[in-house]
Amino acid sequence: MEAEPLNVFVKAPAKINLSLDVLYKRPDGYHEVDMVMTTIDLADRITLEDRADGRIHLVTNSGVIPQDARNLAWRAAELVRERFRVDRGVTITIAKEIPVAAGLAGGSSDAAAVLSGLNQLWKLGASLEELMELGKQLGSDVPFCLVRGTARATGRGECIEELPAMPPCWVVLAKPPISVSTADVYSDLDLAQITARPKTESLIASLARNDFHGVARQMRNVLEPFVFRKYPEVARLKEQMLRFSGEGVLMSGSGPTVYALFQQESRARRLLHGLKGFCKEVYMVRLLGKRPMST
Ligand code: ATP
DSSP states of 117-185 as a string? Predict the structure, then answer.
């Protein structure tokens, strides 16, 4: 007889926004958004170990994220226990690689990884759709983090339509040493001041043509001017990155991380080295495709 697995390892990758548009404020207080996102190979690594005592325990190497029920990964485990009436517990170990409060959906991806990891660990047999339904109770970006790859996210971000994959490229990311709260950015937002919106349909047409430069030219994030006004160092970082690459540079989500896309590894590496001197948190990674069917 095959031994029951007592622990599961899951990768929780970050996302970047190829576009971000905010359409209007809804009566429920959320903003209606229209975003194109893609998954990158910058990931937290999560181990889930079964516990017989029915308790949730969380361990992390990060000094900045909560280790209790405020952690989204913890809340994901609680939700799975409730929904599927599981009486087992779990020790969640998070090796944090994704910068926190950076616009890269680190917390949402950890939550998504715990949902799919516990589905495996406890053999719950839940479908991706069921996990996405649970995920949206935890955060608007969690359903995307379950699907991964390249997708359009509408509603408050939880309605996912899969798109043709982003053409292969290198991603150089730089996070200035400030944390930006997504809630603060949205509450400061004056929709009447938005002038340059992304042309989301054209961006999607470029993806369908596998046209890297077409995508790079269409990348827009309507939150940039609001974040740049409050944190001019983010605007300066973007200008500097544009000087290296010429196109394909954008702030991800509500910032402050700015990334640049490159088809040529050598050009990406030049920017990486150029940034290293004065920005501590810089990364160079590849894109990551859709979640494999088995997970
Ligand atoms: P998004 O792009 O979805 O807005 P973000 O990348 O800007 O997300 P996160 O890294 O997810 O931001 O962190 C946002 C807040 O959530 C932080 O203040 C952090 O303390 C809290 N948080 C709770 N659980 C986690 C987790 N597992 N990883 C990171 N942050 C977490």
Answer: HHHHHTT----HHHHHHHHHHH-TTHHHHHHBSEEEEETTTTEEEE-PPPPP-EEEEEE-S----HHHH
Rounded Cα distance, 237 and 240, in Å? 5
**Cβ contact 241:271 at 8 Å:** yes
Assessment of whether the complete model's pTM goes beyond 0.85: yes
State which ligand 1 atom lies nearest to the alpha carbon of 99. 10
Instruction: Output the six-digit token pair for 48.
Output: 């889930």
Does 141 participate in catalysis according to the annotation? yes
Known active-site residue 34? no
Ligand 1: which of 37, 100, 110, 146 to mutate, most ligand atoms within 8 Å of CB?
100
Distance from residue 107's CA to the centre of ligand 1 (Å): 4
Helix (H, G, I), strand (E, B) or coil at 79: helix
**35 with 152: CB under 8 angstroms?**
yes
SS3 label, residue 14: strand
d(CA 132, CA 146): 7
Q: Compute the distance between CA of residue 26 and CA of residue 291 in angstroms, rounded to an integer.
A: 31
Give 60's strand partners: 94
pLDDT tens over the chain, length 295 residues: 556 668 999 999 999 999 999 999 999 989 999 999 999 999 999 999 999 999 999 999 999 999 999 999 999 999 999 999 999 999 999 999 999 999 999 999 999 999 999 999 999 999 999 999 999 999 999 999 999 999 999 999 999 999 999 999 999 999 999 988 888 999 889 899 998 899 999 999 999 999 999 999 999 999 999 999 999 999 999 999 999 887 899 999 999 999 999 999 999 999 999 998 878 899 999 999 777 755 4
